[in-house]
Amino acid sequence: MSTGVIIILAVAALVILALVLAPRVLQSSGAGLRRRFGPEYERTVSRHQGDRKAAEKELSERLRHHGDLRTRPLSAEAREQYVARWAGVQEQFVDSPVQAVAAAEQLLSEVVRERGFPADDHDEQVAALSVHHSHQVDGYRHVHAVAGRARDGRAETEELREALVHARALFEELVAGHPQDNVRHRAGEQRGAGRRAGHAATGGHDRQKLGDRLHGPLGATHTTTGGTTGTGTTKGEA
After folding, report:
1. Are residues 134 and 54 in the same domain?
2. pTM (2 decimals)?
3. Where is the composition biased (Basic and acidic residues) (predicted)?
4. Could you tell me where the beta strands, DSSP code E, fall in 81-217?
């Protein structure tokens, strides 16, 4: 093999390697992290008192640990059960807001684990969720923190209502049917092209129907949980 051919092959190998590594490098850069994490990027910077270098180091670590996580799809039966339970939580809120928020936190934690996110450590769950659901993960933090304050009698009913509303965005995202679930986790199953196309075409419609089912009644007051809770029922508010 001539020297010229060897040089050409070496250059080609370097080009291929660069193409493979470029997305990872871009993703771990400041601009790439900002695009990947969205609002979570700014929250992390704020938590580091404006130190973007420290924030980007943390986010890069999250991406390294959890970026390749393959979540598990929910079965249709499990999805229906979770949606029914969440609807029950929202109905419970009208009379028992503290208990409802505690139940919402527990239910959301169950869904998170069943979808394949870390099972035991809350901080690891949040870190993994921030990589894959960066626009909704703060709802998980919020409901966890508010449920803890509520157990000590330090949360107002309106705060509890807002926590439940905030958490619902992540719940909807986790239980909604995603076409990519079928691609990632069921590639080995026999499916016709028409069925796959049907999933993709109806995905947005199914998500809309799910949102309609979950937007049930919640009460809204400004009294503390230790006082009288004259909750009013408002359809579609939450």
Report:
1. no
2. 0.68
3. 204-215
4. none
